[in-house]
Amino acid sequence: MRPTVPFWSWAAKRSKDAFRKQSKIDNYRSRAAYKLLELNQKHRFLKKGYGVIDLGFAPGSWSQVALKAVGTEGFVTAVDIQNVSPPQGVFPVYGDMLDPQTQTKILEAFRQHRQEPIKRELVVDTVLSDMLHSTTGIRIRDHAISMDLCNSAFQLAKTFLRPGGFFVCKYYMGSEEREFQKSLMEVFKRVYIEKPKASIKESREAYFVCLGRK
Ligand SMILES: C[S@@+](CC[C@H](N)C(=O)[O-])C[C@H]1O[C@@H](n2cnc3c(N)ncnc32)[C@H](O)[C@@H]1O
């Protein structure tokens, strides 16, 4: 019988395959869904009616989780460099987040998709980034590319987030993370580093969870 505690609190003790199997049962596009579910259960950055930008959405399990959490009154705009169909109800923007033009594309997408006054279009509640490049195995290089992705997500968060808003950002551990964390702390009231249970222990990924944009 399924225990009543959250799935990820017992699955991690079994095997990483437990998350993959469960994602098939729960109809998530990948096991990454459980990372977001766990982070959100702890920090509550996805709520009914929220507007969310999901960076690096493909294949789409974070968008699925976000869409369910925000409901029909909220919206999810999802960005990826890959041309993957998003989950139904999620509005896609295709582009490279390292290209400054992509931010303009996102703004355009808001204009087309949301028929509201321009003032509202610039304000979202939560920016998620699960972006990661194909890692090379060379730690310094993988860390440097990841920090570039984090910085592009942070720039976007500063442009689009309302005061009090939230920013969740995956990074590949390395020497520049402290400096990046300091920049986050200038913009957000609280900044946490998290390693959710569905994240493979040996992997060097972790997440900044930033609460309360100043
Ligand atoms: C780990 S996957 C994200 C998984 C996703 N959160 C989910 O739940 O299905 C990382 C994604 O980041 C995207 N990505 C990597 N570099 C990018 C870039 N420069 N611009 C936009 N997306 C990028 C990749 O294409 C990939 O789809």
Automatic annotation (TrEMBL):
Keyword annotations: Methyltransferase, rRNA processing, S-adenosyl-L-methionine, Transferase
Keyword Transferase applies: yes
Entries under Pfam families matching the protein: FtsJ
The protein, known as: rRNA methyltransferase 2, mitochondrial
Domain of life: Eukaryota
MF-aspect GO terms: rRNA (uridine-2'-O-)-methyltransferase activity
Residue ranges annotated for the Ribosomal RNA methyltransferase FtsJ domain, each copy included: 28-213
SUPFAM superfamilies (UniProt xref): S-adenosyl-L-methionine-dependent methyltransferases
